[in-house]
Amino acid sequence: MTTTFFLVRHAIHDRVGTVLCGRMAGVHLGSAGRAQAERLAHRFADESVAGIYTSPLERALETAQPIASRLEQPFQVCDAISEIEFGRWSGMNFEALGRDPLWSSWNASRGTNRAPEGETMLEVQGRIVGAMERMRGRYVDCSIVLVSHSDVIKAALLFYLGMPIDAYARIEVEPASVSTLVVGEWGSKLLRLNEVVAA
Questions:
Q1: Which is nearest to 53 in space by CA: 37, 71, 68, 75?
Q2: Less Cβ around it within 10 Å: N or C end of the chain?
Q3: CA separation (Å) from 102 to 27, 96, 123, 159, 165?
Q4: Fold observed for domain 2-196
Q5: Quick check: pTM over 0.85?
């Protein structure tokens, strides 16, 4: 008995790579991101999907919507797969973050550091893996789509691959990418990592 997870990172928005958006409100997909979301919807058109779950943030919701429309089924919001709570770092640009020694410590050892007034990456891992394990009980021998965020997806992949949380930088999860993971009582297997649908 297995469950297949399609772990989808939300499509691109205008602040990717410049601002640590975290959970800040009002971050929407631009025209490029909307086009990516439509390509994702096309990619899933022939998949048998039993459920669609999404982070509550706008950029994830706007990525999930075309997939749900194409598959003619509703999506459900799942707080457990939301972005990392970055606390007071949320909304800061990466240039400013680069001058913060706490930011350097966080990136050097995600396993032992906490975002100021936010989460540890191990806490993030605990919540997404907990959600996925609950879903496994509901979706036996089924496939489900989870629309989430880069580091959150990395945290799940690292757990199921038996890798330490500080190996997060060894995995690439691009905007609008799909990583396909099969999980069963016997363990887990990564079928595809960072699959990006070509334009």
A1: 75
A2: C
A3: 25, 12, 18, 25, 18
A4: Rossmann fold (3.40.50)
A5: yes
